[in-house]
Amino acid sequence: MPSLEVLLKSCSTTPTPILDASISMDQYTPIDLSIHNPVLEKVDIVNHEACQAFIDTVLTSKAAKVAYGGYLEQRKLYTGNTNFHTSTNDQRNIHLGVDFWAKAGTLVLAPLLGTVHSFKNNAVSGDYGPTIILRHRLLGIDFYTLYGHLSLASLDGLYKGKQFQQGQVLGTLGTPDINVNYAPHLHFQIIEDIRGYDGDYPGVCTTKKLDYYINNCPNPLFLLKV
Q1: Is 106 within 8 Å of 19 (Cβ atoms)?
Q2: By three-state DSSP, how is residue 171 classified?
Q3: DSSP tag of 127
Q4: How far is 85 from 133, CA to CA, in rounded Å?
Q5: What is the DSSP letter of 34?
Q6: How many Cα atoms occupy the beta-carbon half-sphere of 96 within 13 Å?
Q7: Do strands 107-109 and 94-95 pair parallel, antiparallel, or not at all (unpaired)?
Q8: CA dist., res. 224 & res. 12, Å (int)
Q9: What are phi and psi of 147, to 5 degrees?
Q10: What is the pLDDT of residues 98-151, one digit of tens each?
Q11: Do residues 124 and 80 make contact, with C-beta atoms less than 8 angstroms apart?
Q12: Of 30, 4, 2, the residue nearest 223 (C-alpha)
């Protein structure tokens, strides 16, 4: 049986849309929100308006509609939020998914055939806001995909076991007041062992737990090939 990483890489040889299919792949551009980006030293990246202004600058300079990136990126985006500190003061600031920054209301698509595992509005500051998790099974391997920072309407009519076809609209991106004060974006994450979580799963980890999460949450771009 192949590993999940090998399976994801073999799913397709061309990019798989995760947002509105009318947005062509040449309108996607990488963005660096890491602590290593010197441009961010003068940006209050925790403030969603300042963050959006920086994203807009990147999009405009590249004539793009979607900015993406962030897998295993160490960020200042979570600074000052007590939900990202452990009891030993080991900060959770390493991002475990890929973010796709685009306008609120942008369609979110299911990249693979899957069924609803769980969903919830994680409405705590710094969390995901409305969240959907799909379950997938390919070649005998079970795994999950998480979609965070959606609109509230994305949760309407959902039920566990509901099926979504590849390319079907799953929801839309939420506004900052709904996605708990982030600039509009999709947090997309792949999870092998969901360990009993329901409608939620850690999307950021500490350095001490990075080895575990690298194995359990492979790079989403293995699948999407953006």
Answers
A1: yes
A2: strand
A3: S
A4: 25
A5: B
A6: 26
A7: unpaired
A8: 8
A9: -125, 110
A10: 999 999 999 999 999 999 999 999 999 889 999 999 999 998 999 999 999 999
A11: no
A12: 4
Q: How far is CA 132 from CA 127, 161, 162, in A?
A: 13, 12, 11
Residue type, 208: K
* 188 dihedral zone (left: phi>0; alpha: psi -120 to 50; beta): beta
Using the 8-state DSSP alphabet, how is residue 39 labeled? Answer: G
Q: Are 114 and 145 within 8 A, CB to CB?
A: yes
Q: Report the C-alpha gap between 162 and 118 in whole angstroms.
A: 10
* Whole-number Å distance between alpha carbons of 66 and 25: 9
d(CA 170, CA 168): 6
**Separation between Cα atoms, residue 226 and residue 224, nearest integer Å:** 5
Whether 84 shows a pLDDT value over 60: the answer reads no
The percentage of the chain sitting over the pLDDT mark of 90, rounded to a whole number, equals: 88
Q: Are strands 141-148 and 129-138 parallel, antiparallel or unpaired?
A: antiparallel
